[in-house]
Amino acid sequence: MGDTTMVEHKLFTMTVIENDGHILLMKRPSEKGYPGYLAPGGKVDFPESILDCAIREVKEETGLLVSNLVYKGIDEYVNEQGNVRYMVFNYWTNSFSGKLLDNPPEGELEWVAKENATSLPMQDWFKQRLPYFFKEGTFEIHVKWNEEKKKIDETLIRAT
């Protein structure tokens, strides 16, 4: 087990917004990193709360003000050799107001049919996570990265 006194924790949020069988996704360009379709989200700024971050990131990236967020689960990426843990707190909502931004900063915004979303080009980790937003209960996805081998050693998925 690694030295937990020196672990760097990085916290993020992601929010799936649903409306009439469609979900709002960003078509993120390659130059922004993590290209393909993604839900809005980003880094939690210290000392803001995780929920406040989710609301802020959606507003910054889409122009929408979300409310009544439902906590869906957590996914984390652990790199023991680098002593880093990334944690993403995932939310779902169908409550929002406002107008989509004309020039969104992270990529083109698109309402996508929920049942077709995973057929779009997207990061494998997001494709794996997306169906859990629409299931009852919560989920945990725990990924262990092996820095020396440059590959995933283990992925554990739990749903309640």
Automatic annotation (TrEMBL):
Gene Ontology cellular component annotations, sorted alphabetically: cytoplasm
Keywords: Hydrolase, Magnesium, Metal-binding
UniProt domain Nudix hydrolase: residue ranges: 8-135
SUPFAM superfamilies, alphabetized: Nudix
A molecular function GO annotation: metal ion binding
Any matching Pfam family: NUDIX
Keyword Disulfide bond attached: no
Keyword Magnesium: yes
InterPro entries, per the entry: NUDIX_hydrolase-like_dom_sf (IPR015797), NUDIX_hydrolase_CS (IPR020084), NUDIX_hydrolase_dom (IPR000086)
Essential cofactor(s): Mg(2+)
Protein family according to the UniProt entry: Belongs to the Nudix hydrolase family.
PANTHER family: 7,8-DIHYDRO-8-OXOGUANINE TRIPHOSPHATASE, OXIDIZED PURINE NUCLEOSIDE TRIPHOSPHATE HYDROLASE
Protein name: DNA mismatch repair protein MutT
Organism encoding this protein: Lottiidibacillus patelloidae
